[in-house]
Amino acid sequence: MKRFITHVFIILGLFIGLMFLLDKVYSYTFRHGIPRSKIQKILQEKDKHYDVAFFGSSRTENHIDCKLIEQLTGKTCVNFGISGGSPKDILMLVQIADNNGITYNQAFLQVDSSYNKEKMSPNFKARISPFNEVINLEDESNISLPFINYLIYDRVVGFREFWSIALKRKPKSNIDYGFNPKYNTGLEVPSQLPSKINDSNYSIEKLSQFWKKINVKQAYFTAPYCAKIENRNVLNVFKNRFSEYKEYATVFDDNLLYFSDCGHLNFDGAQVFTKLIVTDFNL
C-alpha cells in the first residue's frame, strides 16, 4: 500500500511538473512569437502612435479600411476592431494599449446592440490568457492553475495555434492595419436587434472618461444594417448619448450589393463606408 501511494505521488508530481513546463513554453511562445491575431499584436506592441484609432466588433474590423484612410488623409490609422468583441473587451484592449505606450489623437467607437453586453467575450478571454501574468484581468480573470487555460481555450490558443506561432506561420488576415474585409455578397440575417437598448453601459462610460482624461478626441458611429434587420429605429437613442455621433444604419438601403450579410458590409461596401467616415467626420 505504501509503495502504491508513493507511485501515485510520483506520477502526480511528474504531471504537475509537466503542466508547469508546458505553461511556461506556451506562454513564452505566445508572448514573444510572431503575432497571429490582432489581440496578440496589441499585447506585444510597444510605444506606437496613430493619428486615428477605430474600436468595436466585427462591424468595425470588416468595415473600416485604415490603409484607405491613410491614402485619403495622410493620417496614420489603425483598426482595433475585434470580431465578437464586447464593450468590456474594448475597455481592456484600450487599457492594455495605454500600458504598452500605444497612443492616438482620435478614437472612433462603433456602437449598436453590443451596448447591451456587459461581460468579456470568451474569445477575448482566450486570447489574453497567455498574458495573465503581465496584465490585470479585474474580476473576470482566467483560472490560475498552470496550463489549464490552454486546455480550456484549446480551440483558440491550443496546440494548433501554438504550433503555428512556433513555425512562424503568418495569419490569413492583415493585422497591421486591422482591416479584415469580406468579399461575398448576401443578405443573410445573422441576428436581429433588441427591442430596447440599455440606458447605460459601464465599460463605454469608463472608456469615455478615460479618453477625456488623456485628451483623446472621441467619435461614435453605428455601421450599416440591411432593411431585413428589425428594430433599426432603436439605435436612435445614441443620438442623445454622444455629442459626436453619426448613425449609418439605413445608409445603404438602396445599395444591397454592398452587404456580405445583413449585419456586415463586403469589401466594396467597406470602401464606400470608409470614405463616408472620412468625409462626415472631417478626417
Brief account:
The protein contains eleven helices and seven strands. With 283 residues, the protein is an alpha/beta fold.
Distinctive features:
five-stranded parallel beta sheet; two-stranded antiparallel sheet; 11 helices; elongated
Runs with pLDDT <50, length 5+?
A: none
Structural class: alpha/beta
Percent in helix: 25-40%
Distance between the termini: 76 Å
Using DSSP, what is the number of strands? 7
Radius of gyration: 21 Å
* Tally of helical segments: 11
**Broad shape:** elongated
As laid out across the biggest beta sheet, the strand order is: 2-1-3-4-5
Arithmetic mean pLDDT: 89
Task: Tell me about this structure.
- This protein has 283 residues and is of the alpha/beta class.
- The strands form 2 sheets. The protein has a 5-stranded parallel sheet.
- Strand 6 and strand 7 form a beta hairpin.
- The protein is elongated and about 80 Å long.
- It starts with a helix and ends with a helix.
- The mean pLDDT is 89.
